[in-house]
């Protein structure tokens, strides 16, 4: 296991009815901006709970943060935040709303254009922010990362800022989610774990077992959610799995991959494909193309996640890859680029960009544009 420093400062407020805690969690002297996506939080009652809890606070509202938040929209929120002296942000919605809010938090403290902050990757000043999470997926409620798109140039990048002050997670908020969003969320959580788990064997028994527990949980609850999205305990497991998958707990001292995400971001930037849907396609190509360098961990994955213990090594790996793809299929997600209307021209655009910018992703830092081309061609 490598050396590491771990500190996660987010207060997690979990469970039924916890939105009422807002009145005590945010000081009354704060000038708050509430940030939202579309109108779903009004339809499911979350908006009413939030405004009731903050009836003695001063707040304004900013609506319209997209599922893949764009800097063009966030510039407007930053300008309004500066104008009105906002000194606390509360994101109400899914991970995209919170990702966008993280950029607003640093943008209010910055004199230049917000896109410069995204390109810098790390921001050193921000106003406090927190979240009420309504869609389990990104884990943004308990990590420092945000992912922002720029429509003008069809780019999408991640950046780091700070942990939310607190995040409220009420599983009942997930009851009204559209099945498509649930499917994308489950795929996102599964791939988050895989990016940290399916790398180099023998690094940490603890990290492996925690990751495997999350993978097994998602595989177990996915069909149950499809049958009954109003089961509190099942949706609580879904919500907490999303948080635990990307709050640094399962990656202490180990190598990480993130190839699938980096390629998936490009598909979203170029075609607007949902984030989780992009991952369901690309992960299969990543595992097929990098199977030799991931061989040891793939065999462990086959045994511990799918109980595949019989046969030759290659046969067991093949079965594990088939079962992984079948899982995404069971969610109703595509696993081929052609199913999403994406062709060879996009593959070349991504390969050329990776080569031109000199990136090298993956646990072995060997996934350049040429390797990305192979990954995408494996799932044409």
Secondary structure elements and pairings:
Blueprint lengths: L10 E4 L7 H4 L5 E5 L4 H4 L2 H8 L4 E5 L8 H13 L4 E6 L1 H13 L6 H7 L8 E5 L11 E6 L4 E6 L5 E4 L9 H19 L7 H23 L4 H14 L13 H13 L3 H15 L5 H12 L6 H18 L13 H14 L11 H9 L3
Parallel strand pairs: 1-8, 2-3, 2-4, 4-5, 5-8
Antiparallel strand pairs: 6-7
Overview of the molecule:
It is a single chain. By secondary structure, the chain is of the alpha/beta class. Helices cover 49% and strands 11% of the residues. The chain has 15 helices and 8 strands. The strands form 2 sheets. A 6-stranded parallel β-sheet has the order 1-8-5-4-2-3, covered by helices on one side. The protein has a two-stranded antiparallel ribbon with strand order 6-7. A hairpin with a 4-residue loop joins strand 6 and strand 7.
Strand order of the largest sheet: 1-8-5-4-2-3
Helix-strand pattern, N to C?
EHEHHEHEHHEEEEHHHHHHHHH
> What can be said about the biggest beta sheet?
6 strands, parallel
Residue share in helices?
40-55%
Q: Give the number of helices.
A: 15
Tell me, rounded to a whole number, the average pLDDT.
96
Q: Separation of termini? A: 37 Å
Structural class: alpha/beta
General form: globular
Strand content: 5-15%
Question: How many runs of DSSP E, i.e. beta strands?
Answer: 8
Q: Compute the gyration radius: what is it? A: 20 Å
pLDDT under 50 segments (min length 5)?
A: none
């Amino acid at each position: 296991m490598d050396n590491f420093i771990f500190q996660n400062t987010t207060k997690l407020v979990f469970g039924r009815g916890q939105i009422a805690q807002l009145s005590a969690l945010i000081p009354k002297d704060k000038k708050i901006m509430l940030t939202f996506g579309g109108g779903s939080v009004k339809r499911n009652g979350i908006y009413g709970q939030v405004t009731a809890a903050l009836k003695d606070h001063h707040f304004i509202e900013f609506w319209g943060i997209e599922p893949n938040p764009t800097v063009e929209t966030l510039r407007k929120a930053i300008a309004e935040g500066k104008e009105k002296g906002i000194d606390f942000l509360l994101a109400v919605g899914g991970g995209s709303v919170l990702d966008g809010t993280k950029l607003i938090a640093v943008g209010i403290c910055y004199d230049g254009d917000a896109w410069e902050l995204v390109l810098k990757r790390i921001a050193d000043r921000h106003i406090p922010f927190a979240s009420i999470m309504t869609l389990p997926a990104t884990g943004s409620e308990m990590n420092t990362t945000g992912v922002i798109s720029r429509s003008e140039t069809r780019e999408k990048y991640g950046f780091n800022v700070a942990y939310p002050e607190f995040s409220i997670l009420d599983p009942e908020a997930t009851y009204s989610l559209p099945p498509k969003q649930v499917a994308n969320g489950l795929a996102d959580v599964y791939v988050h774990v895989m990016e940290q788990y399916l790398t180099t064997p023998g690094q940490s028994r603890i990290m492996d077992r925690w990751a495997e527990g999350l993978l097994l949980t998602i595989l177990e609850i996915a069909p149950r959610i499809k049958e009954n999205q109003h089961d509190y305990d099942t949706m609580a497991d879904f919500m907490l799995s999303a948080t635990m998958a990307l709050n640094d707990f399962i990656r202490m001292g180990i190598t990480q991959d993130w190839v699938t995400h980096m390629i998936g971001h490009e598909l979203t930037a170029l075609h607007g494909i949902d984030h989780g849907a992009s991952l369901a396609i690309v992960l299969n190509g990543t595992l097929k193309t990098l199977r030799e360098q991931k061989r040891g961990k793939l065999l462990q994955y086959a045994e511990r996640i799918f109980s595949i213990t019989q046969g030759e090594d290659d046969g067991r790996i093949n079965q594990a890859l088939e079962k992984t793809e079948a899982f995404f299929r069971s969610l109703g997600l595509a696993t081929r680029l052609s199913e999403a209307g994406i062709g060879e021209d996009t593959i070349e655009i991504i390969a050329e960009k990776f080569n031109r910018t000199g990136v090298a992703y993956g646990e072995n830092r060997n996934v350049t544009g040429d390797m990305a081309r192979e990954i995408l061609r494996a799932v044409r």
